[in-house]
Design brief:
Length: 463
Amino acid sequence: MTATTQLTAQPTTQSATQAAAAAQRTGTDPLQTYIAYADAEPQQAAREAGVTAVSEFSGAPEALHGRITDRVEAARDELRALAVELFEHPEVGFQEHRSVARISELLAAKGHQVEVGSFGLPTAFRASVGAGQPHFAIVAEYDALPGIGHACGHNIIAAIAAGAFTALAPEVGELGGRLSIIGTPAEEGGGGKEHVLRAGGFDDVDAAGMVHPSVGTEVSPIYGSGTSGVRRLRVKYHGRAGHAAASPYLGLNALDAVVTAYQSIAQLRQHILPIDRIHGIITNGGAAANVVPELTEAEFLVRSSEIDTLKVLTERVIDVLEAAALATGTTAEIDVDFEPPYLPLKPNVSLTKHWARRLERRGRSVPVTPSRVRLGGPSTDMGNVSWAIPAVHPALGLGGPADVLPHNAAFAASTVEPPAIDALVDAAIALAGLAADYLADGGLRAAVRAEFDENGGVRRWTS
């Protein structure tokens, strides 16, 4: 039984006076935390000197891997059709009803019973074969981005997961244990996997994996392929309206507050770690130019590649938001974690080596270590899963132009081109092969768990 990572930060609503008092009580001095992480990359490079990409565990028989390959290749047209249909009918988070129905249809056609609406989420799903332990879960995503569709390639993720699950499922009786596919909604915003975790969806899962599309021919390395954690903050500034020409002195300008906050965060950016990111938008700047704005709103995303630094950076941003209210005589209503935070990804190297082994059999080279120092980056709610159980989240390029990046409409179009379908097939074969190796090899499972425990195991974070 595995516990889920609990992120229990509570929304805060404070006046400027309360904010000042809180600052006196606690203060936010990042010095010690930043010293600990400022040279994290050189330390990591030193640790990785002499690392190997070779696993000492044999995994499943090669004949079984041959059958997996044959099944995925035979399903190529079906998997392409699934990716194309999701591309043509994109659905945003928690609204992926058509997408889930289409994925379920493919699974049902292979003889699998699919539970839609799992974990209290209408657009989550689950299907399983086998019973007991060990239990490996293949994770699917399928939500799109507003306005630009599948510009993060979740249509490909869904097809990879479906292909891997259906290719390995007939072998589970021979391997023993259990194989599941878990469909998780709203990765782009909403934290579907954290909701599944809180509902106990991974409680009986021993390890999990998924594959994410990437740029060009890039393949994520075996070591050092983490992501940033992210927390979301929403602030409302409450001022007092006044006639901007006749009596501005009677107003308290909420627009001044939100602009001061935005500019102060811009100043903060030069004093944060290279692994940190802050970005945001003003969502409400007032109603009329001749009225002193009495209500303004903004949203900010705070990212960092370590849990400790993510917590510190969030506290620093809250300090800035509260100080802007103090400076302008307004009050700040701050909502922290209005969507579940995403933790930095902690990929399991023992598992990743077997993903690499199976992908290299498809003629794709997997680097051992990163080609460049990690300086911030995107976030995923698979990070939350990786702190609850051993997990992998490797990335594989779809073969498109190297300058066409995710979260761009051109990237969405690239997901249905022939090179992307080739990548889909290779990724499904490698992911199914990884799951087969895990189910077949007790020594590998023990190494995976030992690595997970050594790296901190289940971590509960209360902000």
